[in-house]
Amino acid sequence: MQPYELSLTAAAAAIRAGELSPVELVDSVLERVERLEPHLNAYATVTAEQARHAARKAADDLAAGRSRGPLHGIPMGLKDLIDVAGVATTASSRVRADHRAQADSTVAARLGAAGAVLVGKTHTHEFAYGLTTPQTRNAWDAGRVAGGSSGGSAVAVAAGAATFALGTDTGGSIRVPAALNGVVGLKPTYGLVPRHGVTSLSWSLDHVGPLTRTVEDQALVLAALAGHDPRDPASLAAPAQDYRPGAGEDLTGLRVGVPRNHYFEHVDTEVEAAVRQAVDRLQALGATLVEVEIPMTRYIQATQWGLMVPEATAYHERTLRAVPELYQVDVRTLLEAGELMPAGDYLRAQRSRTLMRQEWARVLADVDVIAAPTVPATAAKADQETITWADGTVEAVSDAYVRLSAPANLTGVPSLSVPVGHDAAGLPIGMQLLGRPLGENMLLRVGHAYEQSQPARVLAPAA
Questions:
Q1: Average pLDDT over residues 170-180
Q2: Which has fewest Cβ within 10 Å: 17, 55, 218, 433?
């Protein structure tokens, strides 16, 4: 096994045991990046020289008995919305082509302090305003979309071009590409991970979170990220937690909510079968399945767009007027549409979200987690614009991908996407676990138990 193939947990153990040096690991990942980038285009910027220097320093620190913990010497990718001092933050847009960050974002600073090594900045759908990341190719099939908007981060992790990565999630942008590329993606509780120094799409919906190969890896990264930062007005002053995925597969006594509505409607048959099989596996591990009714489903899409569109337009107001021609057409159209939305619509969306949060709290009072598909279909072909369901309903690809992930953004609850198999074409399928606010440990426990009961996953066969 080559070093780039190791999970974060395995790589950290090998480094701790003196069986692998950070230099060997970083060199292996950079060689993988060099080989795959012409095919996948996961990175907006590769910081190879900086990464090699950081790896040598990490190795020297270890030799001197100075370890910073499990992330020491581990190669990472950061979505190109996340500021790193002296490195470009382009948001994959011509609008930001010449931008260089003056200081580290909170998450970059925390990961740097934990010893992680930056390999590069990963591509996003322009300003995170989309669900496909069109410039990046799926790690399992280069003719299909990567998912978005954190497509570059998911593809890098899936292909071995980063040991872990960070993304952002406003309507599903971590979990969608995680599901489509067969990796693990976490949207934490709203406010748990600070967003200072991260380019915003929608202030009241944005989250930052990790993409990893395993659930166990998630716990290691989340431990470095979580914690209050007064520079983010939404940052929670929550008690510190020791994030652990759980030691075994026993889920006896846990109640897993299985939606009877919304989450299994207009879903590909292979996706539904794989997720239901995974839910049955949770039951076999001791969990009790409980049918739940998802509240206010008819308002999900309207509320998501009613909040996101005007907030995004407000953020881009100055540049939209100054250099509209520099935006991609799809993003510019959405931003211009936001200028036409009445304030009353935004206020009604806020009210709808408040009611939705209250109703979800009632549902989650009766179960420990909810298990459902992450997305209703596997990765679409790159030129595919719509999905036609069995009843003849036609849905835009982006609308389909956001439909099942948006509720967690609207309510702020944590959501973890875990790979649960592949369809007949070999494309990955994801199941999301949703929990109570600050219930990340429960999601990690359930996800890890499922993962431990399955054969070890392999990297995407990217070439």
A1: 98
A2: 17
Q: Which domains are seen in the chain, by residue range?
A: 3-250 (3.90.1300.10)
Tell me which residue of 455, 456, 359 sits closest to 410, measured CA to CA: 359
309, pLDDT greater than 70: yes
Distances (CA, A) of 397 to 132, 334, 394, 449: 9, 16, 9, 32
Give start and end residues of each alpha helix (H) in 253-328. Answer: 269-284, 300-315, 317-322
Tell me which residue of 13, 68, 64, 3 sits closest to 33, measured CA to CA. Answer: 3
SS3 state at 124: coil
pTM comes to 0.97
Sequence-ordered list of residues with C-beta below 8 angstroms from that of 364, at least 6 positions apart, any chain = 257, 370, 413, 434, 435, 436
Provide the residue type at 247 as one letter. A
In the β-sheet with 164-169, what is the strand arrangement from edge to edge? 43-46, 117-122, 75-79, 164-169, 207-212, 184-187, 415-422, 428-435, 369-373, 255-259, 288-292
Handedness of CA 148, 337, 92, 55 (dihedral sign): negative
Structure tokens at 411: 């309510």
Query: Can you tell me the distance from the alpha carbon of 317 to that of 273, in angstroms, rounded to the nearest whole number?
Result: 45
Distance CA 460, CA 403 (A): 26
232 pLDDT band, cuts 50/70/90, is very high
Token digits of residue 438: 């600050």
User: With the CA atoms of 211, 177, 227 and 4 taken in that order, what torsion angle do they form, in degrees rounded to the nearest 10?
Assistant: 10
Q: Active-site residue numbers? A: 79, 149, 173
* Residue length of the chain: 463
Distance CA 11, CA 129 (A): 34
Q: Provide the 8-state DSSP code for 457.
A: P
Q: How many whole angstroms separate alpha carbon 57 and alpha carbon 41?
A: 28
Query: What residues form DSSP beta bridges with 419?
Result: 430
- Residue 302 in tokens: 């309207």
Q: Among residues 234, 240, 221, 233, which one has the least CA distance to residue 166? A: 221
Q: Provide the CA 128 distance to its chain's centre, in angstroms.
A: 12
Q: Are strands 117-122 and 43-46 parallel, antiparallel or unpaired?
A: antiparallel
In the DSSP assignment, the letter for residue 82 is B
Cβ count within 10 A of residue 277 = 13
Cβ neighbours of residue 313 under 8 Å, at least 6 residues apart? Answer: 320, 335, 336, 337, 338, 339, 341
User: If DSSP states are collapsed to H, E and C, what string results for 410-433?
Assistant: HHCCCEEEEEEEECCCCCEEEEEE
Could you give the CA distance from residue 139 to residue 154 in angstroms, rounded to a whole number?
Answer: 8
